[in-house]
């Protein structure tokens, strides 16, 4: 099984990179991508933990905003982890998350929901990228909600009055930078409509012009009808089709390998990078 979208404690997952590798081996995964939000900090630990026949794809899930303010996530895979422009883009995106989090806390406080920045940071692993899941965890600890999923269904979803966007590159800029760094790009869960506004076909065509390589068609947040439309788009636009778990450990219901990528499609995608960067034990 090939799973090209997972998270560790270096963003909003609950498994360390080492634990993630162990879980992948137990689940029968053959190729695993580590794609923490706007961060490559977990790469080294994942490489050190790698063993057996498991292949490791290093990447990042990049938080983007369209000119219209629509949140888009781009998976960058197989890029050069030492590319200075790529590292700068990731750093700038991470840095914008702190003022965003403070603003969301202010909005919650104004509605009588008592939560502090210190409480949020207390549930963030060392070196991790701060995000809404950590705010959700702090709200769970306070007893305001029962789980992360409940938070994203209500208080913290993209249409909530408590939601605040953060400074981020446009998806076109992110895709171009990934390509410049030698990697490949896949748009993650593009039709996950419960998260908020989604892109239409015209917008996806713009991403293809920027160099987009693939579409994450099979994802738990997309219905069967949405998957059919995405598959048709991928075929018409000559894009690679991927399927992934978007695994976060105990933070979400997603299970490793619950959606996977066809080996032939993965071979096509890997060949589009400028170098063979898959890591093997």
UniProtKB/TrEMBL annotation:
Domain Polymerase/histidinol phosphatase N-terminal span(s) in chain numbering: 2-66
Organism field: freshwater metagenome
Family matches, as Gene3D superfamilies: 1.10.150.650, Metal-dependent hydrolases
SUPFAM superfamilies found in the cross-reference section: PHP domain-like
A Pfam family that the UniProt record links to this protein: PHP
UniProt GO MF annotations: 5'-3' DNA exonuclease activity; 5'-3' RNA exonuclease activity
InterPro entries attached to this UniProt entry: PHP_dom (IPR004013), PHP_domain (IPR052018), Pol/His_phosphatase_N (IPR003141), Pol/histidinol_Pase-like (IPR016195)
The protein's name: Unannotated protein
